[in-house]
Amino acid sequence: MGIDELRGTVRGAVLLPGDAGFEQAARPWNVAVTQSVGAVVAATDAEDIAATVGWARRAGRTVVTQPTGHGATGDIDDAVLLRTGALDDIAIDPVRRRARVGCGAQWGRVQAAAAAHGLSGLAGSNPVVGVTGYTLGGGFGWLARAHGWASNAVRAFDIVDAEGVRGLVDAESDPDLFWALRGGGGDFAIVTALEFDLVELPRLYGGRVSWSAERTHEAFALFTALTTDAPPELSVWLQRCQLPGAAPTVAIDFAYLGEPADGRALTRGLDALPGALADTRAAMTADQLGTITAEPTDPSPSLSRGELLTDLGDAVVKTLVDAPVAPLLNIQIRGLGGALAEAAPHDGARGPVTEPYALYLLGLGLPHLVDDVTAGFAAILDQLGPHRTGAKPYTFLAPGESASAAFDEATLARLRRIKRDRDPHQVLRANFPVLA
Known about the structure:
Helices cover 25% and strands 22% of the residues. It starts with a helix and ends in a 14-residue tail after the last helix. Strand 5 and strand 6 (98-102) form a beta hairpin. The strands form four sheets. Strands 12, 13, 14, 15, 16, 17, 18 and 19 form an eight-stranded antiparallel sheet that branches. A five-stranded antiparallel sheet has the order 5-6-10-8-9. Strands 1-2-4-3 form a four-stranded mixed sheet. It has helices spanning 3-7, 22-26, 46-59, 107-115, 131-136, 144-147, 175-181, 216-228, 260-266, 314-322, 370-384, 409-422; strands at residues 14-15, 39-42, 63-66, 80-83, 90-93, 98-102, 119-120, 154-160, 166-169, 190-197, 199-200, 205-212, 234-241, 249-256, 278-279, 282-283, 302-309, 330-335, 357-364. It is α+β, with helices and mostly antiparallel strands.
C-alpha cells in the first residue's frame, strides 16, 4: 500500500527520506538520538492522526508519536513518525479547576494559562516538555510530593485506537484502557487530547541557591536536613554541575507551595551557608516553576540515566558527593516521599514509589564524549550497588532500557495483556514498549 494513499488522505505534510525538510522533521528534541524513520506525518488535527493510523494498520506499518521528542530512543527504524505539535489547543475551566489540552501542548503554555486563575497543573521542571508524553509516563515535578503523579489527575483522554478509530476514554467508558494510559506509557492508543484536574496555587516560593564546589559537603548536609522532615508542600533537589569551560558548582533548588514567608522560614538553613554565587529565591507564580532549574529549552544533545535510591548513606556520599562530576554535566538528587509514596487514590498504572530519593545523571551527547559519559554512568551505578533498587520512573528511562524497570510484575503483566488485546498487530509503538 503506497504512501500516495496517505498523502491523499491527510491534510498535513507527509515527508519521505530525500524530501526537503525530512531530516529536520525526523529529528527529535534530543539531537543525540538518530531516528531512521520511513516517513514523517505532520498532523494538523485528530482526523489526520486517525487517517495515519488507519493507513498504517492496512499497510502493516508501525506508528510512533512525538510532539517534541524529549523521550526519543531511536529504536524506530522504518516507522511512520507522527508529529503532533500542531494540536496544542489549551482550555482552562477555572470553576471546575480543569484543563483540556491538545496532545501537542507544552507545559509552559499550560502553566501560563492556569496561573492566570491562581491554578497549576502537576507540571515538570522544563516548560517545553510536552504535557501528553510526560503525563502518560506518570510525570512528577515540583508539585508531586503534595499532589502525586500527574497521571492521577487525568479525568479523560481523547484517543485514536490501533485501528484508527477515534474515541473518548474515562473511568466509566473503558476502565482497562483508562488505567493503562494513566501512567503506563503511550503504547496502547494515541492520545489526541486530555482533560485533567488543576490545583489551587495562588502562593508559591522557590528558586536556586548555588555555591562553588568547595561547599559541596555543606550543601549536601543542608539538602539532607531539608528533605528529612520536609512537609509535602516543600520539594528540594540537589544539583552538582560541571558545565564545559566553567568551574564546578553545587546548588539547592526548591519549591514551596504556600505563603512565601512560610517557605523562607522552612528554608532558612540556606542562609547559614555563606558565599553564594547566585540566589534566585523569590515569590513566584505557577508559570514560573519552569525557571527554577534553568534547564535547556532549545534542542540539545544529551545522555541520561535515572535511578531510585534507598538512602543517602556513606557509600552514596562517596559516589555522588565526593567524586568529581566530570565527565558528566550534572548529578541531580531529588527528595521524594509525600504523596508519591502513598497508594494512589485513583486507578492508574503508576503506583507509589517508596524510595526516598531519585537520582538523575546527565551528560553531553556529542560523539567524541559519548564513550566517556557512558563509562561515567556505569562507574557511578556500579559504585552505588545495593543503594539503587533498579526500579525507575517511566519518564527517567533512557535509550536501551526497558519499560519493565518502571513497573512491578503484576502491573507489567496487566499492561502487556492490554497491549496484546488493544493492539495485536503492534501498530503503535511507545518510546519504551511494554512488550519489548
